[in-house]
Amino acid sequence: MSSSAGPGPSPRSRRADPLTREVIALIGDVVVRYHQEYEEAAARHSLTGAQARVLGLLALDPLPMRRLAGALRCEPSNVTGIVDRLEARGLVERRPDPGDRRVKLAAVTDEGRATAARLREALDFAREPLATLSDADRTTLRDLLRRMLGAEL
Q: Where in this chain does the record put each HTH marR-type domain (predicted)?
């Protein structure tokens, strides 16, 4: 007897599917182009890509260093160096967490928030092509990406 979960191609045959390979290649192209544009936008503000990413995250909310490291999927010591350099430029500051004064939060300054906004505005690669899609198409794309990443809708 087969222990198959149901009809349809096996995972192995889906990987070999030309449509799947094309979709994977297109996703790869999108990622490469996004990272290139992100690095170029960061460089125009004399930032590394990692510094720009930290600035963007902190523009949303102040974060403890450990959570920031988790969001970036890197070691806390790496985040410390990035935050140190952003702090030296007046873009980020450290402050006590009001809920636990033993914890330090990294937070953007007014200049950091303005720089993060300019960075977001400079990223046209995804924004312009997405603007050509209907709301329904963008919603479908968002939902499919969330499913691919295993996120709840």
A: 16-150
Domain annotation for the chain: domains and CATH numbers: 21-121 (1.10.10.10)
The model's pTM: 0.72
In order, the DSSP letters of the chain are -----SSS--HHHHHH-HHHHHHHHHHHHHHHHHHHHHHHHHHHTT--HHHHHHHHHHHH--EEHHHHHHHHTS-HHHHHHHHHHHHHTTSEEEEEETTEEEEEEEEE-HHHHHHHHHHHHH-HHHHHHHHTS-HHHHHHHHHHHHHHHT---
